[in-house]
Amino acid sequence: MALASHSHRDPGGTYTFSSRPRAVESRSKYREPPAEQTQRQYGNIMYDRRVVRGNTYAQHILPTPDLAEVQRQQAVRKRILARRRAAEQLRLRTPEPLQGRRHTDVQTDLFLEELSEVIEATDTECQTDEFLDRPATPLFIPAKTGKDAETQIEEGELFNFDTEVQPILEVLVGKTVEQSLLEVMEEEELACLRAQQRAFEELRNNELAEVQRLQEQERRRREEKERRIAQQKEVLKKERETAEKVAALVYTQQYLSSLLPAVFGSLRDHGYFYDPVEKDIETNFLPWLVAEAHANLEKRHASRELLDNRYELLFTQPSNQKTTSLSHNSI
Amino acid sequence: MAGSVTLPGRAAVAFGRWSVPLLFGQLDRKEGCLVPVLASLCDLIHDPEKLYQTVTGGFVEQLKVCLEDEDPAVRRKTCELLQLLTGHSTGRQALLSSSLLPPLSEMLDDSSSSCRRNVHLVLNGIAQLPAGAHALLPLVPKLMLKLSQEEEEEEVEVLLLSTLSCCSRVDALPALASDGVPLLGRKLSHSSPSVRREAAAAMMALSVPVDGKQQVCEEQILPVLVDLLQDDDLEVRTNAAGVVMNAAIITAGKSLSLELNVLPVLLDLLSERPEEEEERRRRKALVLYCLRALTSLAEAPKGRRLLREQLPLLERRTEDRDQDILRAAQTAIRVVTWTP
């Protein structure tokens, strides 16, 4: 860091010092050891003892000592001293008193004065009066200067209030009335709209009710009609059915009237009407009889067969060829 | 238009074209207190030009942030602003097309009652428009829930009922599905006439579909309505007559009404004839509804018999000047004199 201060000794012997301007550091009253000072604190210049205070008009400025100047001043001083000494020596003094004599001061005036060291002094006291309140300063009424003059404004001379105030009043009243009219109009407009809407709503409700009523009426009538139609259809169907039934009845009666004897006849023919005893005899007895008879016959037949076979065997044993053809024939 | 003197509690307003954008810029940057800015905006928005500027400048979306602010005063003022927007068609459409409806429906459960009241005002404004009512239909169950909780003040109840009736005119099914008819039946016997009026109007809207009519007959609403037909307030009577008119269309309604002796009451209402034009105009709706109700009732044989005796009264009504009343009276006479 470049040194802010720069001092060197002039070759003439004077010592010069210059430094870059830097903020004055604050210095405590009691100097701390320099090692502890780490950060330079910059103090307030106003509270620095080293700063010059007061009016500097008549202050002595330390002159920069020049060598020749210094020598001259020294010479001057010596000269002054020498002169003073010389003057001192030249001063006339009364000669010293002779032996046994003494010089004294004597007053030679007409009247003797006591020359004493003690100065007669009298003590006098003085006391100011009690402080009174300072009286109010009298109004400063400057002396009257100038000339008096007066003037008076009569009525009607300056301006006519009524005519002048008219435009202002007009504006004020007009603005107020305009504003209020606007507000009233706005409200009226809204009320008008509402009324219109209400009227429309009423008509709409009316017509809606009418429409619904008519719809309902239509519905009812249609339902009624449909019901009646259905009813009528039912009736017709029933009638038709009854007619058909009647026709069927008559026809069947007619058909059946001839049917019955025919049926009976055919049944009888087919043998469905039977005498149970007869039937019983037929079904049970006669088959049994027949079966028995058949069995009997079978027995006879069997016995005859047996006999035939024996005869065959008898006849065929002597001649096999004849008997085989015979047996074939006989069998 | 307004002077340059600012009232206390209002922010300073720039001149001319810059008034609205500047205030919205302040809202956006959230400089200090928002309530004076919103109050100035409310004053400005009354002017249709400024409203149009707000809507076309797309500033409405910025209000969404204000709706979710913590300070209830800010929310209340924002709702006032939105309510002013619903006073004009462009404002309503902007409100519908913006995404402000979900935050508004959240605010129905707000802690501050004045906020809730303002939200109801906004919803009422939106519901007056058919497209708006259509958009509010998903909210109907929540609104019905609010109605059933019964902790709201009368004004808020009136607004709620009015919103519900507007929505139900578009489509009554959501309200019917959330037990609309019993709930409204309870409200019909409220002490305040405005609540009764709005409840009857909502009931009229609900009784348009067939389900509603059946529910009206089943839930014993008709006796209450007969009482309301003799109420002091004209509007209440009108709306009650409307409900009877709707309910009498189905057969059950007809029979119930005839049992409850509604006919004499309706005939009484018809027979009053005020002279002034103003009164007549106000009574027009009542007369129309009564005539239609009588027409429906005349389709039942018993009703027809009773009404045949009252034919002169109806004929007197055909001499009325108004076209609609004339038509209605003629229809009534036609139905009464019809023979199968």
From TrEMBL, chain A:
Pfam families: Radial_spoke_3. Residues 1-41 are annotated as: Disordered. This is Radial spoke head 3. PANTHER family: FLAGELLAR RADIAL SPOKE PROTEIN 3, RADIAL SPOKE HEAD PROTEIN 3 HOMOLOG. Keywords: Cell projection, Cilium, Coiled coil, Cytoplasm, Cytoskeleton, Flagellum, Phosphoprotein. One of its GO terms (cellular component) is cilium. It is found in: Cytoplasm, Cytoskeleton, Flagellum axoneme. It comes from Kryptolebias marmoratus (Mangrove killifish). The keyword ATP-binding does not apply. Transmembrane segments: none annotated. Residues 22-34 have a biased composition (Basic and acidic residues). Its main location: cytoplasm. Belongs to the flagellar radial spoke RSP3 family. Residues 197-242 form a coiled coil.
From TrEMBL, chain B:
SUPFAM superfamilies: ARM repeat (SSF48371). Pfam families: TPR_DNAAF5. HEAT repeats lie at residues 221-259. ARM repeats lie at residues 220-248. Residues 66-258 form the Dynein axonemal assembly factor 5 TPR repeats domain. InterPro entries: ARM-like, ARM-type_fold, Armadillo, HEAT_type_2, RSP14, TPR_DAAF5. SMART domains: ARM. This is Radial spoke head 14 homolog. The lineage of its organism: Eukaryota, Metazoa, Chordata, Craniata, Vertebrata.
